[in-house]
Amino acid sequence: MLVFLAFLLSGCGLTPVISGSSVAASSAGTVSSAATATADFFAMDTYMSITANGTDAQAAVDAAQAEVYTLENELSRNLPASEISKINAQSGLLPVAVSQETFNIISDAVSYSEKTNGAFDITIAPIMDIWGFTDSKFRVPSASEIQAVLPLVNWQKIVLDKTKLTVELPVKGMALDLGGIAKGYSSDKVQAVMRGYNITSALISLGGNVAVFGTKADGALWKIAISDPAAPDSYIGVLTATDVSVITSGGYERNFTQNGVTYIHIMDPALGTPVQSDLLSVSIVSADGVQGDSLSTALFVMGKDKAIAYWQAHKDFACILVTSTGEVFASTELQNTFSLMDAKRSLTFFK
Amino acid sequence: MKYSIYDMTRWSILTALALTLSVTETLFFPGMLFPVPGMRLGLSNIVTLLALYLFGAFPTILIVCIRCLITFAFGGNLTSFLFSMAGGLLALAVMLLLRNFRKFSLFGVSVAGSAAHTVGQILIACLMTRTWATISYLPVLMIVSIVTGLVIAGLSIPVYKAVTAIHPGVEN
Amino acid sequence: MNLKKKNGTAYEPQYRFNRFDAAVILLVILIAAAAAFQLFQTTQKSITATSHLEAVLTVSGEEVWRSNLSDVTQQQTHKVTVSAGSLTVLAEAGKVRVASSDCPDQICVHTGWLTSAGQTAVCLPFKVVLKVISVDSQGGISTDTSALYDAISK
Questions:
Q1: How far is residue A249's CA from residue A303's CA, in Å, rounded to a whole number?
Q2: Mean pLDDT on C75-87
Q3: Minimal Cβ distance to C35: which of B58, B139, B169
Q4: Cβ contact A274:A268 at 8 Å
Q5: Which terminus of chain B is more solvent-facing, meaning fewer CB atoms within 10 Å of its CB: N or C?
Q6: What sign has the CA pseudo-torsion C93, C95, C96, C99?
Q7: Which of B53, B107, B140 sits opposite C11 (nearest CB)?
Q8: What is the pLDDT of residue B30?
Q9: What domains, with CATH codes, occur in chain A?
Q10: To 10 degrees, what angle do helices A2-14 and B138-166 make?
Q11: What gap in Å lies between CA A296 and CA A280, rounded to an integer?
Q12: C70 to chain B nearest CA, in Å?
């Protein structure tokens, strides 16, 4: 009996010694080749980082960077030559012919507007302008200003012609801002480009929109941390995954404070004012970057309860919500892959 | 040969006893309880202990070795053979030392023997697995061996008394 | 080697538990404790990493790239693009250097391999600094979180 106890005791506390040696980072990259290449650059008004592992790592990364620049030229509202700028310039005038790609993005955006009942709306541009988020000259507009501009925010008014590939904004003053979807779309495109190269894995971070595929050198999955909305340099937890995009929306990065009140850059399309959400951040985990980007904004606008209801109605993505009280809610499929950094925080998985 | 046939017969009996103990201890304390296959409690140390006091060092060494060999010959594996030898011989050496020192009672000698038995087995285990990992079991097993040692001594005393009562002088 | 005396055995065993026996038991306990303590120390050490070299690249003071030079087994390159051009860093096991740069004076490239903590290569026109530091995460909290996650979604 004593011996049995002895065995039990020895069994539980002492095995770490044997497995401890495997904790050290294994640089046994082995298998094929080559190398790891990374590139950092500024684009789409944010800092981007692309990493690839594998034989063609450098070529893949270079191609990815080039793709981002190309997309920026097409989609950025801030570049006058971009197609979006042309559409905006022609508001109330004529339909504008666009590339298939631009057309696809806009119609994707419209379909998400429909799914989320307008919580996500790319016609929000005029509102962004009067709040000063476009040129960073922040200001708090008056109620009448907002009322004057609000009718221009209406995704249902966008006219898309599939056969002619044209986009029209029928009311003068309407404008599109693809900021809420461009990065997601870009990360999908970049992934597609990179997969065409001989690489084993890649990590793409477009201003905090993270996309990963493949497994790392030692066969491990990628570890993606979710930023802590309340503490910029910290994170709330880590998600272990691959072949997904993890896109987070929150007001903590772009905002301004006036007279003690903080105004975030995520607007409520129905009101024309920054969203008063009970959420601090929404992170969408999905294989589709466009979905991740648009839903992260939409669910943030919806607030916790409606966001969970939306997820329950669709369930084709996973999400992590951080509330204003610091609690974390995550959809049930992330149970085994998402863990908190600080065990004292509350984490609830919802079904 | 300076040993009589009587002596050798007695040693044989003790060897048989050691064998029996060695085999049956696995019935009461299955080898699976131990971290490494082949490790055992070492009840046959009772015999080693007795033989040391009754017969002396050389016969005891013989008894230990023959006991191990026969166990191995009759369906043991090389691993348990090595474990038995390592444990048994180290225990013997330590007990011999303590016995000669004459200050320790059977309890002390036995505890030292059991502890040495454990250490011997763990060292062999480390050698075989080529890693020091098995040493992690040392602390707990050492404590256990204290208990085992005391028990063995406790069991040996009446036996010794009985044997010497019948054979006051175990010599020619 | 005949140890036996004429009457009785050579070594008369004592039956009473005495202080020497207690000493033996104590010794065994001490050995067990020492072994346990030693094991505890070793487990602690295997969890916290020993110090290693890291390369840190900053652009205008902001960190843009970091690499654990002890983990580098194959060639690692990193390209930084600033408005005036780009600069490529090359890391191999235990060393790092500025491999190429678009800057006019090429001082950063000429600095060559950085192999120990404290060494730096600076590209002044691009405001890029490559330096090697020694990171020791022993003693609890490590300020280097690069091993805890690969990217942060924000």
A1: 12
A2: 89
A3: B139
A4: yes
A5: N
A6: negative
A7: B53
A8: 63
A9: 78-176 (1.10.3980.10), 221-350 (3.10.520.10)
A10: 160
A11: 11
A12: 25
Residue A56's CB is within 10 A of a number of other CB atoms, namely: 20
pLDDT by residue (tens digit) across A321-337? Answer: 999 998 999 999 998 89
What gap in Å lies between CA A33 and CA A231, rounded to an integer? 39
| A247–C contact, CB cutoff 8 A | yes
The sheet with strand C151-153 has its strands ordered as: A338-340, A231-241, A222-228, C151-153
* pLDDT exceeds cutoff 60 at A30: no
Residue A299, pLDDT > 90, answer yes
Element (H, E) at A35: strand A35-43
Q: Which residue has tokens 């001082």?
A: C107
Angstrom distances, CA of residue C143 to CA of A233, A240, C35, C63, C138: 11, 21, 32, 14, 11
- % pLDDT > 90, chain B: 16
pLDDT tens track for A103-154:
999 999 999 999 999 999 999 999 999 998 887 788 899 999 999 999 999 9
Question: B103 and C9 in contact by Cβ < 8 A?
Answer: no
CB–CB of A3 and B41 under 8 A? Answer: yes
* CA–CA separation, C102 and B97 (whole Å): 79
Instruction: Give DSSP secondary structure letters for A130-178.
Output: HTTTTTT------HHHHHHHGGG--GGG-EEETTTTEEE--STT----G
Asked whether the beta carbons of residue B136 and residue A3 sit closer than 8 angstroms, the reply is: no
Is residue C87 a contact partner of residue C126, using CB atoms and an 8 Å limit? yes
Pick the CATH number of C52-135 from 3.40.50.11600, 3.40.250.10, 2.60.320.10, 3.40.1090.10: 2.60.320.10
Q: What is the DSSP letter of A88?
A: H
Rg of chain B over Cα atoms, rounded to whole angstroms, equals 16
A217 contacts in chain C (CB < 8 Å): 73
In chain B, which among 121-150 make CB contacts under 8 A with chain C?
135-136, 138-140, 142-143, 145-146
Parallel, antiparallel or unpaired: strands A244-250 and A209-214: antiparallel
Q: Does C113 touch chain A (CB under 8 A)?
A: no
CA distance A209 to A289: 9
DSSP string, chain B: --S-HHHHHHHHHHHHHHHHHHHHHHHHS-GGGSSSTT----TTHHHHHHHHHHT-HHHHHHHHHHHHHHHHHTT--HHHHHHHHHHHHHHHHHHHHHHHH----HHHHHHHHHHHHHHHHHHHHHHHHTSGGGGGGHHHHHHHHHHHHHHHHHHHHHHHHHHHHH-SS---
Q: What is the pLDDT of residues C96-136, one digit of tens each?
A: 999 999 887 777 887 788 877 667 777 777 878 887 777 76
Number of Cβ within a 10 Å radius of residue B168: 11
Beta bridge partners of A339: A238
CA distance A126 to A172: 11
The verdict on B143 touching A (C-beta cutoff 8 Å) is: yes
| Residue whose structure tokens are 């009280």 | A325
Name the residue ranges covered by the structural domains of chain C.
3-48, 52-135
Reduce the secondary structure of A277-332 to three states and give it as a string.
CCEEEEEEEECCHHHHHHHHHHHHHHCHHHHHHHHHHHCCCEEEEEECCCCEEEEH
Query: If we measure between CA atoms, which residue out of A250, A251, A270 comes closest to residue A262?
Result: A251
The encoded tokens of residue B44 equal 């046959």
Residue C6 with chain B: CB contacts under 8 Å: 169, 171
- Residues contacting residue B56 through CB under 8 Å, at least 6 positions apart: C1, C2, C3, C4, C10, C11
Chain C hits for B109, Cβ within 8 Å: 13
